[in-house]
Write a structure and sequence with these properties.
By secondary structure, the chain is of the alpha+beta class. It has helices at residues 2-6, 20-54, 126-130, 209-216, 426-449; strands at residues 72-74, 95-102, 111-116, 122-124, 136-138, 144-147, 154-161, 167-183, 189-195, 218-223, 228-232, 241-243, 249-254, 257-262, 267-272, 277-279, 291-296, 321-327, 339-342, 344-350, 353-359, 365-371, 377-382, 397-403, 412-414. It folds into 2 domains: 18-57 and 432-450, no CATH class; 72-423, 6 Propeller (Neuraminidase). It has 5 helices and 25 strands.
Length: 450
């Protein structure tokens, strides 16, 4: 090899073109800048993607703001979303509505939801999810939800605070089946029916608690300030109930009679209810104290010793009926004219105005205010019934709808903005964030090779 190199001509290297070194340095710097810009762009995409994914999934320490002076109802309820957070993870503050939403044709994807009275907050009531979506009551002021258990006998009721997300267990003194009936306007008392359970689903339904308690349940009055329940043995089987506007009396239907009792269980009278009808649950006593509102039986009515006792709890709201009114005392002002085409009576704005659920020919559910006597109607809000449930295969249905009855007199209707659903579920945030990180890594490696 030494000899071979020795034969090469000993000539100097050709001179470089003018400005060659400057050109090479400029190109090198340009290439380095491009690599840095590409890397920075990739990491900017990563940071932005993580911000989009992680920020909605992080619970901020701030508590819900103070309630506004006037509670509001959105003029349109938001559609179904799997990204809706829970009350425990992100307390929504006081609610204007509690309802079940979804469908179960192919997949059981129902959601128990509360909607904010002060902002566009939507939250799943996870305590209800954990108890398989039992029947529940929304407090008149919209700050709490009380639930039992439809799966069988339970030893406690669960009180959920919507402003903090905390739960309180209220012992019942032993396992019993429970039907929640009514919440007093002052927020202190809850009427419920309780009975030992002997069945195990023989009524052909997953929820056999409601019908069995409807046949054998005894009225109890719960004082939420002390957690103590008082049994009223004479009122059995308690079917539906509604508190008087002063919270000192209670109308409880047994058979076709509405018994008027005070908080000590003493009866002061009764009102006969026409066969085939029942006292409107929780909202049946008018604000002026003069009338009881009745609706047709949802199923086969109160238990009469041989038949009845099926509550039809959990059925989609779609069947239009009528609301009639009965005077509590004779000789007073005649009852208002019946209200037709009512899917559900939801509460009273005043002694002369009620809020009802109605439906149109397309099956869309609306909340409507009706002026009694005049019969004039005003649509307050509508539900989305689009094909967004069960992964876009079914229409969305509403059931077990309740409003915060104590907020209705001051209720305003607000334009529905973008729904605030709270932090994303971790089960969704983590996989999506992982996919984004892997994609960003592959992109970064590709930029480096280039």
């Amino acid at each position: 090899m030494r000899d071979l190199f020795a034969t090469l001509p000993d000539e100097p290297a050709p001179p470089m073109p003018a400005g060659y070194l400057d050109t090479v340095l400029t190109l090198g710097r340009r290439s380095a800048r491009r690599r840095r810009i590409g890397t920075a762009a990739v990491w900017a995409v990563v940071v932005l993607a993580l911000a989009v994914l992680v920020v909605p999934g992080v619970q901020l320490p701030a508590q819900p703001g103070a309630p506004s002076k006037k509670p509001g109802l959105p003029d349109r309820f938001a559609g179904y979303s799997l990204l809706t957070s829970t009350v425990t993870k992100a307390p929504p503050g006081r609610a204007i509505a509690l309802y079940g939403y979804g469908n179960g044709e192919l997949f059981n994807m129902f959601q128990p939801l509360v909607v904010g009275a002060d902002r566009e907050t939507y939250r799943q009531v996870d305590a209800m999810q954990e108890r398989n979506r039992p029947s529940a009551l929304l407090a008149p002021d919209g700050t709490r939800v009380l639930l039992g258990d439809d799966r069988g006998a339970t030893g406690d009721l669960v009180l959920v605070d919507l402003t903090t997300g905390k739960r309180r267990s209220i012992p019942l003194g032993g396992p019993v089946g429970v039907r929640l009936l009514a919440w007093s306007p002052d927020g202190r008392y809850v009427a419920y029916s309780a009975a030992p359970l002997t069945g195990s689903g023989e009524f052909g339904s997953v929820n056999f608690v409601d019908p069995e308690v409807g046949r054998t349940g005894t009225l109890r009055l719960l004082d939420l300030s002390t957690g103590r329940s008082t049994e009223v043995p004479a009122v059995k089987p308690a079917w539906t109930a509604a508190f008087a506007p002063d919270s000192r009396r209670l109308a409880v239907q047994v058979g076709q009679e509405a018994h008027l009792i005070d908080l000590d269980g003493r009866e002061s009278g009764s009102v006969h209810i026409t066969a085939g009808r029942e006292l409107a649950a929780n909202v049946g006593w008018s604000p002026d104290g003069r009338f009881l509102a009745t609706v047709p039986w949802a199923a086969d009515g109160p238990f009469d010793g041989t038949v009845g006792g099926n509550t039809n709890h959990g059925v989609f709201l779609s069947i239009a009926r009528n609301v009639d009114f009965i005077a509590i005392t004779d000789g007073g002002t005649p009852p208002p004219t019946p209200v037709q085409d009512v899917v559900q009576l939801l509460g009273w704005r005043s002694a002369g105005s009620v809020v009802i659920a109605t439906t149109n020919a397309a099956g869309q559910l609306s909340l409507t205010e009706v002026q009694l006597g005049a019969g004039t109607r005003r649509t307050l809000s509508r539900f989305d019934t689009g094909d967004t449930c069960e992964l876009g295969t079914q229409t969305c249905q509403v059931f077990d709808l309740q409003l915060a009855t104590g907020l209705l007199p001051d209720l305003t209707v607000r334009h529905a903005g973008r729904p605030q659903r709270g932090p994303w579920p971790a089960a969704l945030t983590i996989p999506v964030a992982t996919v984004v990180l892997i994609a960003a890594l592959l992109l970064w490696r590709g930029v480096r090779r280039t």
